């Protein structure tokens, strides 16, 4: 038996999220169907670093699986990509030791959220950015971003429909980069993230950018430990799982 | 009666091209449906600078129409965009004189064709680039590009299913720009273009880049005035109608 670690990129637009669901097109379901084909009908389960919601993308998501097929890693990449649809692409396949675990061994995760800050819409970026048609106060957003950095109980920034008990996480970096073409990238690196945490942080930063909240309000929101105090969850299409570090 | 000139951008991915066709989702059909709604059921025809094929995009396409509605131009933009789907966006609406014609008055057109020249695929650019997984000889392509510049009979570079008789056109500029992220942009500006001419030029340049043709062969291909001598038509998704000048 061999354990393989795969790095995969996908365009989340046409998926009902990462996790397998009956009668839905999901990333996990699509990959497991291909693996079943390669294993001549044998079911193969994959384990990812975490889920992504419908419409959320991955630049580099990681999953592992166990196989008894004796195929070199480079050929695995070719075999998978030749059977996968054009919105999923395997970047890398590496053999790992039997104790590697794509979820439990995560050291750090990076997400990026893209805003299109412009009066005008851009049809070509509608699936990959969140369009904000008004100007944003970047300085205020940067000040508020600092509040999230460090170890905090992120209960206020976590969707309520979750079974996770420990809501303490550490954010190492949270920065806002103004890119070319009216694009703002919110880059966040942390030890791990709660359900919809990045999108709720972004929604909260947006309210700061619009002047509806002050950076001081953000401190209060975290202290409340109550989801109802934070802002609306930002829409999925701006979010990309960028990198998983082990 | 007022004549309006509209500048429109669209993502061609989910359209069966620009021109209206029964039971197909087309750009023209979609815009005319919206105009009919605004005109309370009255049919309004639009006239564009030219057609684009299925999968081909527009950064700035231009069309005109005539209306008896008395609405300021700025409100026209809002009204149209609020009813159009999210893959079509009106950038500008201007009132023009009665003798303006979106097709006949074109002075110059610019198209851009994007290549993704990289061993690896990019799921996020699959609808907006043509993926070329091998290296290309850019110097040879640039030399070949020069051959197309100027006034020529472009019969060899035109799809055969066309009713156009005069196939003489002038190319003012044809350049290859190596962009960031493995993207090569082939920019072509001309007096006008024959059916699939840009995509056949790109296909021919690609064969030069791959070493299948020399720049000298390109001179011969033009002189033959026979489509069968030029290369395969490059796929639609790399092509964008960039700008129309009057």
Automatic annotation (TrEMBL), chains A, B:
Enzyme class: isomerase
InterPro entries assigned to the protein according to its UniProt record, in alphabetical order: PsdUridine_synth_cat_dom_sf, PsdUridine_synth_TruA, PsdUridine_synth_TruA_a/b_dom, PsdUridine_synth_TruA_C, TruA/RsuA/RluB/E/F_N
Catalytic activity reported: uridine(38/39/40) in tRNA = pseudouridine(38/39/40) in tRNA
Annotated ranges, domain Pseudouridine synthase I TruA alpha/beta: 9-105, 144-246
Enzyme Commission number(s) of this protein: 5.4.99.12
Gene3D superfamilies, sorted: Pseudouridine synthase I, catalytic domain, C-terminal subdomain, Pseudouridine synthase I, catalytic domain, N-terminal subdomain
Transmembrane segments: none
Residues annotated as the enzyme's active site: 53 (nucleophile)
Keyword Transferase belongs to the record: no
GO terms, molecular function: tRNA pseudouridine(38-40) synthase activity
Binding-site residues for substrate, renumbered to this chain: 111
Keyword terms, alphabetized: Isomerase, tRNA processing
Sequence similarity: Belongs to the tRNA pseudouridine synthase TruA family.
Assembly with partners or alone: Homodimer.
Function: Formation of pseudouridine at positions 38, 39 and 40 in the anticodon stem and loop of transfer RNAs.
The protein's name in its UniProt record: tRNA pseudouridine synthase A
Provenance organism: Terrilactibacillus laevilacticus
